[in-house]
From TrEMBL:
Keyword tRNA processing tagged: no
Highest taxon above the source species: Bacteria
Protein name stated in the entry: C-terminal binding protein
Presence of the UniProt keyword Nucleus in the record: no
Source taxonomy: Bacteria, Bacillati, Actinomycetota, Actinomycetes, Micrococcales
Pfam families linked: 2-Hacid_dh, 2-Hacid_dh_C
Residues covered by the D-isomer specific 2-hydroxyacid dehydrogenase catalytic domain: 17-318
Sequence similarity: Belongs to the D-isomer specific 2-hydroxyacid dehydrogenase family.
UniProt keyword list: NAD, Oxidoreductase
Domain D-isomer specific 2-hydroxyacid dehydrogenase NAD-binding: 111-290
Length: 323
């Protein structure tokens, strides 16, 4: 029988014990790379592979056409916008993601960003450490709203959006949301009030983005949307960078037309040299790290490795995506 091959195209995990054990149990060869993401290189690396595991690699029609018959593609994580799922269906390639490895951690990080920007944590720190006096009066950086007076606006009410809602409601905030495909029952159970997009922009003190990146949501938060937000509003994005026009966001916050930015995801990662976000005021950036805790990382790799083993054994997948 032909030796089966599992290819990991790109990853930066501290170790791959789960993957190594799963491949060994299924008698498959494991090929590991850390940085192969561009179509041509991915196609070359994965030609004839039975399983491809990826973080951000481009899994295009051409890549899919080169895989072994009945191959499986496993996305390490939730969003799968770099995979052509329709082409996969045409080629008989199964695709799955790992939707449930760390939504709590992403929600924790989102709320941390929102509150840190609202409470001006970085600015206080900078003023204490960089000013001659070594101090700053609390009210010098005001006004700062009480969290219990804040209207928190979610864009997207899936698993992460709802977990964010539960957390900020515990702080006493009111939660409103825009989501054209909302699960009305689940949303009501979290005490979230659904609104249309314009109402959300107009009313929210914090706009928090939790939708998938699709052609429909690309630049959903553009210059027009930001102009409709309150001048004091804070924009938080831990979903995907391209949901927000980040240049327009940097301009708006620099011109005082937005209250602050908390961004874990950017349109280009790493952030380009000279990008206006590098010098934007009242802005906190984290490096696509919202998913990361020791627990979520373990879950992510274990769940993905288990899918790999199921794929190699020809069993049904736990989280197969269907178009
Ligand atoms: P989910 O699939 O559970 O929820 C997405 C929600 O967005 C759904 O309720 C859906 O109806 C809604 N939605 C779809 N189109 C919309 C539109 N046009 N406008 C408003 N809402 C819309 O996804 P989940 O797990 O909650 O993930 C949310 C986001 O977080 C995704 O973009 C995902 O890629 C991202 N993510 C980011 C991580 C990070 O480390 N920063 C880690 C994990 C996920």
């Amino acid at each position: 029988m032909r030796a089966r091959r599992v290819v990991i195209t790109d990853q930066s995990f501290p170790g791959l014990a789960h993957e190594e054990r799963a491949a060994a149990r299924a008698g498959a060869e494991l090929v590991v790379r850390s940085d192969v993401t561009a179509e041509a290189e991915v196609a070359e690396l994965t030609a004839g592979a039975d399983v491809v595991m990826l973080a951000y690699a481009e899994i295009t029609d051409r890549v899919l056409a080169g895989l072994a018959e009945g191959a499986t593609v496993i996305r390490y994580g939730i969003g799968y916008e770099t995979i052509d799922v329709e082409a996969a269906a045409r080629h008989g390639v199964r695709v799955c993601n790992v939707p449930d490895y760390g939504a709590d951690t992403v929600a924790d990080h989102t709320v941390m960003l929102a509150l840190a920007v609202l409470r001006r944590v970085a600015d206080y720190h900078a003023r204490i450490t960089a000013s001659e006096s070594g101090w700053v009066s609390a009210t010098d950086l005001g006004p700062i709203a009480a969290v219990s007076d804040v209207t928190y606006g979610l864009v997207g009410t899936g698993q992460i959006g709802r977990k964010v809602a539960a957390r900020v409601r515990a702080f006493g905030a009111e939660v409103i949301a825009y989501d054209p495909y909302a699960d009305a029952e689940a949303v009501a159970a979290e005490g979230i009030t659904l609104t249309d997009f314009d109402t959300l922009l107009e009313c929210a003190d914090i706009v928090s983005v939790h939708a998938p990146l699709t052609p429909e949501t690309r630049h959903l938060i553009d210059a027009r949307a930001m102009a409709a937000m309150k001048d004091s509003a804070i924009l938080v994005n831990t979903a995907r960078g391209a949901l927000v026009d980040t240049r327009a966001a940097a301009e708006a916050v620099s011109a005082g037309r937005l209250g602050g930015l908390g961004l874990d995801v950017l349109e280009s990662e790493p952030l380009e040299e000279g990008h206006p976000l590098r010098t934007a005021p009242r802005t906190l950036l984290t490096p696509h790290a919202a998913f990361y805790s020791e627990r979520s990382l373990t879950n992510l790799q274990r769940f993905a490795a288990e899918e790999m083993e199921r794929a190699l054994r020809g069993e049904s997948l736990r989280c197969q995506l269907r178009r």
